[in-house]
Amino acid sequence: MGDTQDWAAEPGAAERARSLLAAAWSCAVTADGAREEYAGVHTVTGDGRVLLDVPEDSALFTAVLCAPRGEPTAVLEFADAAPVPVRRRVRARLWLAGWFSRRGARLLFQPTRVVLRRPSGAVLIDPAEYAAARPDPLATAEARLLTHLADAHPDAVERLTRLVRPESLHAVTRVAPLAVDRHGLTLRIERTRAQGDVRLAFHSPADDVSQLTERMHALLAQAGAAVRPRALQRYRADGDR
Fold first, then answer.
1. What is the pLDDT of residues 76-124, one digit of tens each?
2. Which of 112, 120, 119 lies closest to 96 in space, CA to CA?
3. DSSP track, 158-178
4. 198 vs 214: CA distance, rounded Å
5. 171-213 pLDDT tens trace
6. What pTM was estimated for this model as a whole?
7. Which one of 10, 98, 99, 127 has the minimum C-beta count within 10 Å?
């Protein structure tokens, strides 16, 4: 199931794809019928092409050298996992299909097809739109920010649930920060056998961490003026036993 909550602007599919790519540490590459997984070897150009620094004796490098024109068809896959432990931790997957070419000691990947898959479904992104998009300014800091919020400020997470509709908190067993971007914060609402996500929008986009801090303080002030839902009162009482 999935909870819904009214919100303002949120990142578009192309921006989400570029943000996922900017923050990703590992990727899987399928080329010439073989699949290899790499960690910490890729960088991204300003227009979304991917540079891979792989060993010259790897199967992938060999495939590039031996393929006609040196540009084999390939697929790159990136997974976006929530930094805070939650159920169904993978928030999205990104597939890039396209061509490899050699750039000195590295491989350059040119995407020609971009697919972003989230729990709500898969979206085919126009390659030109993908190339023109920019990552969310908080993308590379998100893991650190969410981990700090969950570990150091659980009281703040609880207070933010006052902004969630009461029906979304029915039978809640745990609430955790799932995602944050310049437009808002997403909470994961877990129950015994199900979970849902609720998004809390900022009053305006945050372009850096200092602005995010101000937006979070504004949300907490708004939550402080709200009444704690009865469902969460029971959840806290049960958790304190």
1. 999 999 999 999 999 999 999 999 998 999 999 999 999 999 998 999 9
2. 112
3. HHHGGGS-GGGGTT--EEEEE
4. 20
5. 899 999 999 999 999 999 999 888 999 999 999 999 999 999 9
6. 0.88
7. 10
